[in-house]
Amino acid sequence: MSELQPRAAPAPLPLAARSLPMVLRTEIEKLILRGELPTGERLNENFLAERFKVSRGPVREAFRALVEAGLLEFVPNRGVFVRQISLAEAIATYEVRAGVFAHAGRLAAARVQDGEIHRLRSFVEHMDECISRKDGAGYYALNLQLHDQILFATRNSRLITTYMGLIKELHRFRAKNIDRPEHLRVSNAEHAEMVEAIAARDELRAYEAHYRHVMNAKGRVLEVFGKRDA
User: Fold this and answer.
1) Around Cβ 197, how many Cβ atoms within 10 Å?
2) Domain positions in the chain
């Protein structure tokens, strides 16, 4: 199996204690992204512990990790809630993200190493394969890894931290596109252009490709959520 393909699904619960919070985080995140735990809902620690047949401690640790990831929020004296971000807030975040990611593309074009170019191209290839077999979850996992690899190629830790702080609020909006194969095809064509711009070490072309990708993603979000949230 290629190292670039998404990891196998976690083994059924219960698992060894050291891996349990990580598995629970993944399972709870899936419930959020599928809409089974809707935005604004207060999460019940006991209910989830019973659902997954585990103690409350690992659930609490998973909650903490998801708060840090931006999917949950802790409200003092009230509990933990699925974080609610409005469409307007998401669009504003996409607009800021576009500038930061464009700069990341420019830096990656200037600093990328040959081995990283091969890896970036491989991500795009495997994402095309996911589209062909209608594996939206696999595509989304690889999409996150592709973006992470581009950020790593910048060698700029401050930029990476800034970018990660922005996108942690956007998972619900980004993940929703996996239900739309036509969006995935267009998005991956944009990825291919981004990667080839980096491979050519063309900083201006990379800047424009990365900026365009995020702004187009904003348009896709409006297409999916705009009428519903209007």
Assistant:
1) 22
2) 20-82, 87-229
- For every residue of 51-83, DSSP letters joined together read HHT--HHHHHHHHHHHHHHTSEEEETTTEEEE-
Instruction: Count CA atoms closer than 13 A to 37's CA, side-chain side.
Output: 22
Phi-psi category of 63—alpha, beta or left, where left has phi over 0 and alpha has psi -120 to 50? alpha
CATH of domain 20-82: 1.10.10.10
Instruction: Name the CATH topology of 87-229.
Output: Four Helix Bundle (Hemerythrin (Met), subunit A) (1.20.120)
Write the pLDDT tens digit of every residue in 164-219: 888 877 876 776 666 688 889 999 999 999 999 999 999 999 999 999 999 999 99
Amino acid at site 201 = R
Helix (H) or strand (E) holding 80: strand 79-82
Tens of pLDDT, residue by residue over 150-170, are 999 999 999 999 998 888 778
**Which tokens sit at 2?**
């290629």
Question: What residues contact residue 45 under an 8 Å CB cut-off, 6+ apart?
Answer: 56, 59, 60, 63, 80
